[in-house]
Design brief:
alpha+beta; about 30% helix; 5-stranded mixed beta sheet; about 240 residues
């Protein structure tokens, strides 16, 4: 039996050595192939909300999945952190789009149904159903409405009346170990604060009202300790 010592001094058969050497030379190719296959994945399945999703994205509404449909749906999913990101027109994708449509329909009159009190002066309103928030003075809209990201199932943002009681411009969460810029606490550990994620990133926050940076900063400038906060509705999917 012929042996060689050219692999870190280990005595192995020539055939085994050649196989090991081949494996040592191949990882880049194997990883590249796997990554390419994953990146190229796009389902051919027609989802239960195909027509609604096609209409939302401005695609031809025929209710049949196509390559271009899949790419458009997958791009939307990737932008907002919806998984699996395979271009399937499923319940979560449509729920997200439907929430966006409800927000758009609110226009500049988010309190049309008078569900947020108009007799308290300045107040921050949070509508969990539409994932929408705004600030009003009486019945006059002061800021917003803006999209928000509220508590996920099991960690819902609590409903009811409360007041801002503590503000800190750069809070560090000892629970989630993340920075919470422009934090304004109004109900226990629940606060308005900014995040870098999409407002539509599922499944939601740990209970706080997440906001885009510009909106959280505007809330910081408009609210004070003692300002009223009113939360109502129910987040879709909870």
């Amino acid at each position: 039996m012929r042996v060689i010592r050219n692999i870190r001094g280990i005595r192995v058969r020539r055939g085994v050595a050649l196989s090991v050497a081949g494996l040592m030379a191949a990882p880049a190719l194997v990883l590249s192939t796997g990554a390419s296959a994953q990146a190229a994945s796009c389902t051919t399945s027609t989802g239960p909300y195909q027509k609604k999703v096609e209409k939302f994205l401005g695609r031809p509404v025929d209710g049949r999945q196509s390559v271009t449909d899949c790419k458009a749906i997958r791009a939307f999913q990737a932008k907002h952190g919806i998984t699996p990101t395979i271009g399937y027109a499923g319940p979560l994708t449509w729920r997200t789009m439907n929430t966006m449509l409800a927000q758009k329909a609110a226009g500049k009159n988010p309190n049309k149904a008078k569900k947020c009190p108009t007799n308290k002066g300045r107040i921050a309103c949070v509508d969990l159903t539409r994932q929408l928030s705004w600030i009003q003075d009486g019945s006059k809209l002061k800021y917003g409405p803006v999209p928000v990201r509220t508590g996920r199932n099991g960690s819902e943002t609590r409903t009811g009346a409360s007041k801002v009681y503590w503000r800190t411009i750069k809070h560090w969460s000892t629970i989630y170990h993340v920075w919470m810029p422009y934090s304004q606490f109004f109900d226990g550990g629940q606060a308005f604060h900014s995040v870098t994620k999409s407002m539509y990133n599922p499944p939601g926050s740990g209970g706080c009202v997440n906001m885009r940076s510009k909106d959280a900063k505007a809330y910081w400038n408009l609210l004070r300790n003692g300002t009223d906060v009113h939360v109502y509705g129910r987040k879709p999917g909870t």
